[in-house]
Write a structure and sequence with these properties.
The protein is of the alpha/beta class. It has two domains: 108 residues, Roll (Urease, subunit C, domain 1), CATH 2.30.40.10; 323 residues, Alpha-Beta Barrel (TIM Barrel), CATH 3.20.20.140. Helices cover 38% and strands 19% of the residues. The strands form five sheets. Strands 2, 3, 4, 6, 7, 18, 19 and 20 form an eight-stranded mixed sheet that branches. Strands 13-14-15-16-17 form a five-stranded parallel sheet, with helices on one face. Helix 10 packs across helix 14, helix 11 packs antiparallel against helix 14 and helix 15 crosses helix 16. The model has no long low-confidence stretch (mean pLDDT 94). Bound molecules: zinc ion. Zinc ion binds next to loops.
Length: 466
């Protein structure tokens, strides 16, 4: 056996006695009270080590002297939680509004929204470019998941949609979407027959594409889910499930004309039965309560007092006129119907949540949806979810946990944990105590981009000059 020379032992001894080198991170956040959204707890006295866009360490402050960084954020008396997800937004209004749409991106960040699910419009190529540039760090904005163009019937309601008038239109439509590398499929069902609608869902399922959207008012929810529908946007289509004559009303193909009778015959027990039947964690419902509230109140609103209105480009403000005119021309009966529908819709949220359906927080902000401002509208949506009976913790989970779950990305988002994305917001007040505290944003960290209070302010200010 070879003997090691004595100087080797001395060397080993010297190395062993050296003070251990500190582990270095690109960014250290110290003294943080971490909000564990899944557990509904505050974990005080934490330090978070970040390299590039990933959380590499979450430890107690007692071990702080083992770590170092050239960039340290002291989050003393502040709360750190995952960045928000707005799971229903739009970019649209035609190519002439591309830049104005792009200017909305910083508004999301300014409100702590670090990821958005774009539900389709008519400037898909631009949105896809932004998506890729943001992922590569070449453009500041929230991470984007997009449906690309919506699918609709032969006579689409929204510009930019792909029309599906017959069975043969389905494969090429889905090939276009696959070619664009969209993240999921959105169906808008203004002129789709139930039969064609089911076939689209079936085809998406076969190709492994996630599919959500509206349900034709004459279609059957349960059948759609059986064919593979992953989610439903808005709550109005559920109302007829709570009517004993819902089936026959749907078959009459009355469209929105069915709702007076649906509400007259509305039965809460039937609503519960339907929810139980749809109950699955793999089924996603995006209530979009805030946009409904704004649309109801449009005629009586004074948007000139909105601090965010000056940040919206003039072209986008012009797109607000359609809904505004609709609201001004609405009859008293029409107004009452909307109010009654809204009450019933809101009453569905808590039972759905309790039944295990995955609720997604989404604002429906974007052009055409008047005065529903990017970023701020998601805060309002969270507050309304709490009004329906969810706790602040549950409401937050519909944004930061359910959003990634829809895409099977729970591993990378939804918590302040090792291996997850460093998309964080720093708050001065605890949102688990009061959901309004989500507005107390002090800092946003999105990977290597750090937005302190003054940078967040300038994200808003810079819009004013355009
Ligand atoms: Zn929408």
């Amino acid at each position: 056996m070879n003997k090691l020379p004595t100087y080797c032992f001395i060397l080993i001894l010297m190395v062993a006695c050296q003070p251990k080198a500190k582990e270095k991170f690109d960014l250290l956040i110290i003294n943080a009270s971490v909000i564990d959204v899944a557990g509904g707890k505050v974990l005080p006295g934490k330090l978070i080590g970040i390299n590039k866009d990933t959380i590499q360490l979450v430890a107690n402050m007692a071990s702080a002297d083992r770590y170092a960084s050239d960039q340290i954020i002291d989050a003393k008396e502040k709360f750190v939680m995952p960045g928000l997800w707005d799971n229903h937004v739009h970019f649209r209004g035609g190519d002439s509004l591309t830049d104005e749409n792009k200017n909305l991106l910083p508004l999301f960040i300014a409100h702590g929204v670090t990821t958005i699910r774009d539900m389709g419009g008519d400037i898909s190529q631009s949105v896809l470019q932004w998506r890729n540039k943001i992922r590569e760090g070449q453009l500041a904005g929230p991470n984007i998941f997009t449906s690309g163009p919506k699918l609709d019937g032969a006579d689409p309601f929204w510009a930019g949609s792909i029309a599906i008038g017959k069975l043969e239109d389905i494969p090429p439509a889905l090939e276009v979407l696959e070619g664009l590398k969209v993240d999921f499929v959105k169906i808008y069902a203004s002129s789709l027959s139930p039969e064609l609608y089911y076939r689209i869902i079936e085809a998406c399922e076969k190709r492994g594409l996630k599919v959500t959207g509206h349900i034709p008012l004459s279609a059957d929810h349960f059948e759609a889910v059986e064919f593979g529908l992953d989610g439903v946007e808005h709550l109005f289509s559920f109302l007829s499930l709570a009517s004993p004559i819902g089936d026959s009303l749907r078959q009459l193909n009355l469209g929105f004309g069915m709702f007076p009778q649906v509400l007259e015959t509305y039965d809460e027990d039937l609503a519960k039965d339907a929810i139980a039947k749809l109950s699955s964690e793999d089924f996603y419902v995006t209530p979009t309560l805030y946009v409904s509230q704004v649309i109801m109140q449009l005629a009586d609103m004074d948007p000139t007092v909105d601090s965010l209105l000056p940040l919206i480009g003039p072209g986008i403000q012009k797109t607000y006129e359609r809904r505004l005119k609709q609201a001004q021309n609405r009859s008293p009966e029409g107004k009452q119907l909307m109010l009654d529908m809204d009450i019933r819709e809101r009453s569905l949220v808590l039972p759905m949540f309790q039944a295990g359906i995955t609720i997604l927080a989404g604002s429906d902000c974007g052009p055409s949806n008047s005065y529903v401002y990017p970023g701020a509208a998601l805060h309002s949506e969270l507050a309304l979810l709490v009004e329906t009976g969810l706790t602040p913790q549950q409401a937050l989970s519909t944004s930061v946990i359910s959003g990634p779950k829809f895409f099977g990305l729970d591993k990378y988002y939804g918590g302040i944990e090792v291996g997850k994305m460093a998309h964080l917001i720093v708050l001065t007040r605890n949102p688990l105590e009061d959901i309004e505290n989500i507005g107390s944003i002090n800092m946003v960290v999105k990977g290597e981009n750090i937005y302190d209070k003054s940078k967040l302010m300038s994200l808003k200010a810079s819009r004013k000059t355009q």
